[in-house]
Write a structure and sequence with these properties.
This protein is an alpha/beta fold and 337 residues long. The chain folds into 2 domains: 41-155 and 275-299, 3-Layer(aba) Sandwich (Rossmann fold); 159-273 and 309-336, Rossmann fold (3-Layer(aba) Sandwich), CATH 3.40.50.2300. Helix content is 45%, strand content 16%. It contains 13 helices and 12 strands. Helix 2 crosses helix 11 (276-293).
Length: 337
């Protein structure tokens, strides 16, 4: 019996050991939880306003950048993509589902999507593309230091530089038509700039507003005899219905100049602006820095395309009764027939 501990003492020791063991297991579980989360594939929700080439390119470029960096979409990074088809109630529902499911990052393509998501979360990192003026949209504090959980790429180009092209195409032009959705901040800001420009050079800006794509053709028809050329800003509603506008423009020979580069290939006479595919790639690289390098959107400057491009459609110019001056032809990077 020498050295034998009382039964109660053994029980207390076993109980104490069990408590210590439980504590150790709990600590290890807490320590390992972040590691397990980091090792699981991050989830990106892509929310696009509507289908048209510029917004599609913003998405395609984003995914290309991820693949080019060596990550396999669907395995290394899980991507969930939804298009709201320009329906604000659908847009809101998609945004809410992304936030409620705890996406690791949300990629919002166009101004309404980023505004909607911004109102729903201050925690999930948000990247945007196809947003011309994120300051006017009230989603960032400044281009240099966004200040919150949102940053991205912008296709900002001075409207004066785009409208100058109108003067180069039609020297002495007096009346310029513009069609836009007044409910879209992105477009409204551009038209405000266009008004200032028109007033400063003595040109009359003839404005027509639409609220949906079905109204675009009628708005274009109302400009017949009222404007000698039509300017289309980077307005998602109008660009999505561009073909209906071009039908009127060709019939009545009213040249169309746009701020969205993809419109030239579709039939606008000229377009001056940014390459949305390139800006999408830049956004994709920003996403990887946030997800894998711990970059903070608050301190990541909004990115731009350094040099703007000019695209001309020679076939469209002929159909709309316009001869493009040689000095404009020489500056074009893209030519379409």
């Amino acid at each position: 019996m020498l050295g034998q501990a009382p039964a109660g003492s053994v029980s207390r020791r076993v109980g104490a050991f069990g408590s210590i063991l439980c504590c150790l297991i709990l600590v290890l579980a807490i320590m390992m939880a972040p590691v397990a989360r980091a090792q699981s594939p991050p989830r990106i929700g892509i929310l696009q306003l509507v289908e048209h080439p510029a917004l599609d390119d913003s998405r395609i470029g984003f995914l290309e950048a991820i693949e080019e960096a060596g990550y396999k979409v669907g395995e290394d990074i899980v991507v969930e993509y939804h298009n709201a088809q320009n329906d604000m109630s659908v847009l809101r529902a998609i945004a809410e589902s992304f936030v409620n499911s705890g996406m690791d990052l949300i990629y919002a393509i166009a101004t309404p999507p980023v505004q909607t998501v911004a109102n729903l979360t201050k925690d999930i990192p948000i990247l945007f593309a196809a947003v011309r003026d994120p300051i006017a949209a009230q989603v960032v504090e400044s281009f240099e230091r966004p200040g919150g959980n949102i940053t991205g790429t912008s296709h900002w180009t001075p409207v004066s530089a785009q409208i100058k092209l109108v003067q180069e195409l039609i020297p002495g032009v007096q009346r310029v038509g513009v069609i836009y959705n007044a409910g879209e901040v992105n477009a409204r800001v551009q038209v405000e700039e266009a008004r200032e420009w028109a007033q400063s050079v003595g040109i009359t800006l003839v404005e027509r507003t639409v609220s949906n794509t079905s109204e675009v053709q009628q708005a274009a028809q109302s400009l017949v005899g009222q404007a000698s050329i039509i300017y289309v800003p980077t307005d998602n509603t109008v660009v999505a219905a561009l073909e209906s506008l071009l039908t009127v423009a060709e019939r009545f020979q009213i040249p169309v100049v746009a701020a969205d580069m993809s419109t030239a290939e579709r039939g606008a006479v000229a377009a001056y602006g940014a390459d949305f595919l390139q800006l999408g790639r830049q956004a994709g690289r920003m996403a990887l820095r946030i997800l894998f390098e711990g970059a903070d959107p608050a301190t990541m400057p909004v990115e731009f395309q350094e040099e703007q491009d000019l695209a001309l459609n020679l076939g469209a110019a002929k159909r709309m009764g316009l001869t493009i001056p040689s000095e404009v032809l020489e500056k074009a990077r893209y030519l379409y027939e």
